[in-house]
Specification:
- This protein folds into 4 domains: 21-153 and 236-304, 3-Layer(aba) Sandwich (Rossmann fold), CATH 3.40.50; 173-227; 317-418, no CATH class; 436-522.
- The protein is built from 19 helices and 15 strands.
- The protein has helices spanning 25-34, 56-64, 77-90, 126-138, 155-169, 176-193, 201-213, 218-227, 239-247, 269-278, 282-293, 334-338, 357-369, 376-386, 394-410, 436-444, 460-467, 475-487, 501-522, and strands at residues 46-50, 69-74, 95-99, 112-117, 140-151, 251-256, 297-304, 322-324, 328-330, 342-345, 351-354, 374-375, 416-418, 447-449, 455-457.
- Helix 6 (176-193) packs across helix 7 and helix 18 (475-487) crosses helix 19 (501-522).
- The N and C termini lie far apart (53 Å).
Length: 527
């Protein structure tokens, strides 16, 4: 259905300035290595991002990987100008941005080890889709990896219901703001109108969508809504259809950027036995997974068709990786504790249990060190040391690598592997340092990108502090700066009128200490 669908220019309504951890070359290189490829090391690589918007994703990468080169292109003149302004402000020399049409990219544009195409493929005409795959074929180095995200069926059949309703409801809207406001209001109306039908699958469609949207700010939601659900072109694909199209360009399926989604997690042995009988390829099997999981979005990695992809997971690459974890320990029953079983839980509810002493010690070391990335050899040594093990057997080493790989296959919130560790610290130094780009972002917007390429949302107080972390200002300078801002009412803090100067200084001191510790735990401080 296309009832007077409108396209809103990215110059008129720019897309939010965001980073995407799933697109990072480190993620791509790690998965390529795990599956038998020899990807170019990311600290000396060439990266192209098509549809770079204002460059936030690429700028954060370039800041942390100074010996690699980055090229971003976008058709939006307004957004490219913003990206160029950022380059000038922070003085980066290993990145360039180009305002151009995708169709104008030729093999002469350059060869790239990693190509990122996020949020583009489903939203452009078939001619441009073919061109994007052609670019991946001709501009990707022999061991290169391309990332392409797109909407997928069957999950988008449900989203089509919502999209078509919003397009119809807003068919007479004149401005982008009016269109997005009417759309949000209509979905809220539908959710309220159907809230007395808790057992209705139809009602659940709207409630699930509202839950998805509720944590987004109106400004952010406005742009995303217009360019995602309400974009004039929005073509989902079945996974197998996308891969068939890629294969016509001498490309093959590598894996999904979110590795656990390709694993049979949560499926019974009976289901897996049946799928094993009817699926004759990896693509067929994953298509059946999509049917079972109602998949609506994929972040697919492609490589050249002549690459020998080895899908037999081995612990050997694990021993070359850095490891990190964002999990926490979970209280277990006395019976399980008595036999030495300990359980670790990811923020997504995923669980990993083990009674292997070295694995438990390694997990605890990772949790104490998070969000730092620890090389496997160092992790092995530290875990063994905590257990007073003077010698580690090959069995224990293999068991640790195997358990980490198993947890990684369950959820990236349990274990994540990396080929690279950024220059970050979890300790607040005498003169804390944030990257020039983080400081620049802090002056521009609440969203900030960490050294590990995750996003954090900062309040105004935190942004003021982060913007001053140039490695020159010590705690006393930062404190005096903040106290003066509060005293002159440039920064508003609660109940300051009733405080003495000493009480105010004490309160600001506490807030500054907590904020700096939060920066360190988030991965915002440079070592």
């Amino acid at each position: 259905m296309d009832t007077n669908a409108q396209h809103y220019s990215y110059d008129q309504v720019p897309y939010p300035d965001l980073s995407y951890v799933q697109t990072h070359p480190d993620r791509l290189a790690t998965l390529g290595t795990l599956l038998g490829m020899k990807p170019v090391p990311i600290d000396h690589c060439h990266v192209l991002e098509i549809g770079t918007a204002s460059g936030a994703n690429l700028l954060a990468m370039a800041m942390v990987l100074p010996l690699s080169t980055f090229v971003g292109m976008d058709i939006s003149e307004v957004q490219i100008k913003k990206a160029l302004d950022a380059i000038e402000a922070i003085g980066l020399t290993n990145i360039s941005f180009h305002q151009m049409d995708i169709l104008d990219i030729t093999p002469e544009f350059g060869q790239f080890d990693y190509i990122i195409i996020h949020g583009i493929f489903s939203w452009v005409p078939p001619l441009v889709q073919e061109k994007l795959l052609d670019i991946c074929q001709h501009n990707l180095t022999p061991q290169g990896i391309a990332y392409i995200s797109y909407n997928t069926y069957p999950g988008w059949h449900t989203m089509d219901i919502i999209r078509n309703m919003m397009i119809y409801r807003t068919r007479d809207a004149v401005t982008p703001a009016e269109k997005s406001a009417q759309s949000r209001k209509w979905i809220i109306f539908m959710g309220d109108a159907l809230k007395d039908k808790p057992d209705s699958a139809y009602a659940a469609v709207f409630q699930n969508y509202l839950n998805f949207r509720k944590n987004q700010t109106e400004e952010f939601d406005h742009a995303v809504l217009l360019h995602d659900e309400l974009e004039a072109l929005n073509q989902p694909f079945y996974f197998y259809q996308f891969i068939e199209q890629a294969e016509q360009h001498s490309l093959q399926y590598l894996v999904e950027s979110d590795f656990p989604t390709v694993m049979p997690n949560g499926l019974s042995s009976e289901v897996l036995n049946y799928l094993g009988q009817i699926a004759h390829s990896t693509v067929e099997l994953e298509q059946y997974f999509d049917f079972l999981r109602n998949q609506s979005f994929r972040c697919t990695l492609l490589c050249h068709a002549d690459i020998n992809v080895d899908r037999r997971l081995s612990i050997q690459p694990v021993r070359e990786f850095y490891v990190s974890s964002t999990a926490h320990t979970l209280k277990v029953s006395p019976e399980r504790a008595e036999i030495g079983i300990e359980t670790f839980e990811g923020i997504d509810g995923s669980l990993f249990s083990t009674n292997h002493a070295l694995t438990k010690a390694a997990f605890h070391y990772l949790l104490d060190s998070k969000p730092e990335r620890i090389h496997f050899d160092v992790l092995l040594q530290q875990a063994a040391s905590s257990l007073n093990m003077t010698q580690v057997t090959s069995y224990d080493t293999a068991a640790l690598a195997g358990n980490l790989l198993q947890a990684f296959a369950y959820s990236l919130n349990l274990i994540e592997f990396h080929t690279f560790a950024p220059p970050m610290t979890t300790v607040v130094s005498e003169r804390p340092l944030a990257t020039a780009y983080s400081r620049y972002q802090a002056r521009q917007q609440p969203n900030n990108t960490t050294l590990i390429h995750t996003r954090v949302q900062l309040d105004n107080f935190s942004r003021l502090i982060l913007s001053q972390l140039d490695g020159e200002n010590d705690f006393a300078v930062l404190l005096n700066f903040l106290v003066e801002l509060v005293e002159t009412k440039i920064v508003a803090l609660p109940n300051v009128e009733q405080m003495s100067p000493e009480e105010l200084r004490k309160m600001v001191t506490t807030q500054l200490e907590l904020t700096l510790e939060g920066f360190a735990k988030s991965g915002l401080l440079v070592s």
